[in-house]
Amino acid sequence: MVLLLKWAVEQPNSYCLLVSPIFAQSKKTFRDLARAAGINNPLVASCNSADLIMTFKNGSTIRMVSAETDQNLRGLTLTHLVIDEAAYIKESLWTEVLKPAFMIRGKKALFVSTPRGKNWFAKIFDWGQDQTFPDWASYRITTAENPYINPEDIEQAQRTLPRNTFLAEYCGVFLDSAGSVFNGYGKVCTLETFPAPKKEGEKYYAGLDLALANDYTVLTVFDSKGNMVDYHRENKTSWEEIIDAVGEKIKHWNCECLVELNSIGSVVYEILRKKHGSKITSIHTGTNKNDLIEKLKHTIAEGKIHFPVESMWPELHIELSIFTYKMLPSGKLSYSAPGGYHDDIVMSIAFANKQLSDKANKPLVAFPTMR
Question: Range of 265's domain?
Fold first, then answer.
């Protein structure tokens, strides 16, 4: 925020953009900025908390946006850019949208993030350490260098967290798996044809995770060999439209679908059950989530399930890589995405994987016949 203000105030007619992975982060940052230098500031011309835009009397603009959609970012001409938590944002957003907007008047771009494995953020960090890339510079700042952090908290984290999680989150180290529950998931991300064509005689299985609040409704479909063949992901759409869209997918693949029962789930389940009969079954996740995640974890580790490569569905890879756990006071594990992030795709896959484990992979039993 200090850098954004410095650029905007000191360089007239600047257009400074901050991009965060999700809207909630952008909104919080803008509110903090507005409190620090809002409309009563003699340098500020306007402060729009709905659109997250602050303009200055010298012609400069500070704007904050979410990386969840790139449609509202095309056509901009930027002078300064900050991408926050860059490792959790698609590389294509930078290369295809923001970089072209930055090329004409761009003066400074700052990429800030905790590492998330060795993805594109690790690549540009390496550029900053390489003298053959003079336009790039990179720096690693550890939690221990923060004078406001209690050293005892760091020591406790080092004792209690998995080693890879501590190295990534507290030391800024790039690791292949970081702290993900699904270590090594990249080995099963090999499908380059997605969505896949339907095969006659093949059986298909699906899982449906239903949205709550700002979450997504996600349907994932797999064949009997564990290959993901299709998906549907939607939010902020009426339940009628979601039911119709999901129903079309279920009808197309003629798949058996496991539906989550939450506050809205029972209604959706009943509607889908009426339309598609016994192919629709239900599950309560409240008491089964840990079992579902453990089962999916083992399925991935054993290579019995396969996902599309990252370019085919980047959001899938983000959710698999950040999905984590925490130790409860009771000593039990709690699985979820980090605060502010989504795990709807992961849960949909977990439901479909249960279908695969219970039905597609169920061994045949041969009975002897009387002679």
Answer: 185-360
pLDDT reading at 368 higher than 50: no
Out of 85, 113, 141, a domain closes at 113
What mean pLDDT do residues 88-115 have? 93
Could you say which DSSP state residue 302 is in?
A: T
**Which one, of 66, 64, 92, lies nearest residue 78 by Cα?**
64
Per-residue burial over 222-257, b if 16 or more Cβ lie within 10 Å, else e, is bbeebbbbbbbbeeeeeeeebbeebbebbeebebbb
DSSP string of 313-343, one letter each residue: -HHHHHHHHH-EEEE-TTS-EEEEPPTT---
Q: Is 59 helix (H, G, I), strand (E, B) or coil?
A: coil
Mean pLDDT confidence for 89-116: 92
Q: Compute the Cα dihedral for 160, 165, 169, 170 and give only its sign.
A: positive
The whole-angstrom distance between residue 20's C-alpha and the CA centroid of its chain comes to 12
Q: Give the total number of structural domains in the chain.
A: 2
Select from 113, 133, 153 the last residue of a domain.
Answer: 113
The CATH code of the domain that includes 75 is 3.40.50.300
Are the C-beta atoms of residues 318 and 338 closer than 8 Å to each other?
no
Q: Name the 3-class secondary structure at 11.
A: coil
Res 268 pLDDT > 90: no
Mention every residue, 6+ apart, whose C-beta is less than 8 A from residue 338.
322, 324
- Identify the CA nearest to 140 among candidates 156, 121, 163: 121
Residue 365 has pLDDT above 60, yes or no: no
Q: Which residue has the higher pLDDT, 264 or 101?
A: 101
Rounded mean pLDDT, 12-18? 97
